[in-house]
Amino acid sequence: MQKLFLKGLGITLLLNLLVKPATIFMVDIKMQNELGSHQYGIFQTVLNFTFLFSMLLDMGITNFMTRMIAQHPHMIHKYSDRLFTLRSLLILFYVLWTVVLYFIIQLPAAWWWILALLIMHQVSIITVNYVRAYTGGLLRFGLDAVLSVVERSVYFVLGCLLLYTQFVKPVSLEWFIGIFVTSSSLSLLTAAFIYFKLVSFPRFKWDKRFFISLLRQSYPYAMLVILMMLCVRLDAVFLETIHPQGTRQVAYYTQSFRLLDACWMFAVLFGSILLPVYSRVLKEKSSTTGIMTHALNLLLSGGLIMIAFTVGLRETIFDALYKDANHFAYNSWIFLSMTFIPMCFTIVFGTLLTANQSLRKLNQIALISLITMIILNLVLIPFLGAVGTGIAAFVSQGVMGLLQYFEVRNRMKHDVAPGTWNKLILLMFALCAILAVQLYFNFNPLLFILTLGIVWVVLVFGLKIIDVVQFIGLLKQPKK
């Protein structure tokens, strides 16, 4: 199973590394520079608003189906038509709820067309994720990897045509949102084609008893994702409504959050592979130690050097990427970059708890994290703006990640391999020492990068945090 995890991860990372970084740095960042902080802040505010309750489109069905199909592949055709009918009803409910809530909280009526298009975007994205429950549950990681990059690939091509050619000048918010929604729509068509091949052409089939039964089983999954979504996406809404310069603060925060989101995209890929693998391992009553250790080592070793590198050169990086970067973006990134570490805890340990169906405990932890985030935002935003939101994100995600790890270790009695934490802590202290020296003395950036890279390579491979020999051995094992 470790071999399957590593191969699936390799395919998925390869495709995503080819597409997503180029999209972020060649399209997303240039688009924000072209539109300006105010226009892009409007887009980001409405996008985050449509994210808040997007799980109403799914109600936990995707995670539930991923786990069920991984453990019982023969069930793939049994409920497909009834699930199609149920999801159609959920889409209708989400649209009505989002529109009503939009006007209740009195966001500007002039943005209604943005709201309508971004609702379409959310429906497409969540539906593609639902199809990935089938590709992931069947351990068809090649197809799953393709679905994970279609939307970004189309967006990259259309974005480059908009930004780097003379077809449309000047670039406007309307054109940007148009290509944004077109990309997700084409991704939806690709997912539909794969679904037809794997399952069948969907038909409406009403079964009230089945709907109620399934929602009762998937409800805890839905609550979990909604709470976690609120923890991540509510920050921009708080900034917009609380701070006197809300729209601009959202834009500054987005400058930092985009880099975190770029890293988070790759971490999420681990989770999409870990969930079906964990589910299969738990069903077979095998050990999760090896898989947990590999995933944690890969995520945290990469995360630690990312934090040290970007924090040490944050002003240089942000000034190169954005026209209007300032201290709000620089300083919020310090806290948002550190947020990546506890978010990785959630990927490794939270996913195991999900596969184990420890949903009540996960929901309790997510609620504690959400309350922490809300309180800190209310206190810090009026004084610190985007930086206060970054602090709130780091603390709330830290609470969530640590509580999930303690739950795995103390209740489930699962843990990483002995010595893992000692190695990672040693790596962290070494990189932090180099970062502290750089911040104090402000050495040449090239010298800082070389020192950081050499120390990271020596420690990661010398301490076997990443054990290349073991990885190659696992990949060469014959299939059982």
What does this structure look like?
This protein is an all-alpha fold and 480 residues long. It has one domain. It is built from 17 helices and no strands. The longest helix has 38 residues, at 246-283. The protein is globular.
Please outline the helices and strands:
Layout: H1 2-35, H2 37-52, H3 61-71, H4 80-104, H5 112-137, H6 141-164, H7 173-198, H8 208-242, H9 246-283, H10 289-312, H11 314-321, H12 327-355, H13 359-384, H14 386-410, H15 420-441, H16 445-462, H17 468-476
- Rg: 22 Å
Number of E strands: 0
How far the N terminus sits from the C terminus, by CA atoms, comes to: 10 Å
- Return the string of H and E elements: HHHHHHHHHHHHHHHHH
Percentage of helical residues? over 70%
Helical/strand content category: mainly alpha
Tally of DSSP helical segments: 17
Quick take:
The chain has helices at 2-35, 37-52, 61-71, 80-104, 112-137, 141-164, 173-198, 208-242, 246-283, 289-312, 314-321, 327-355, 359-384, 386-410, 420-441, 445-462, 468-476.
Keywords:
mainly alpha; 17 helices; 82% helix; 0% strand
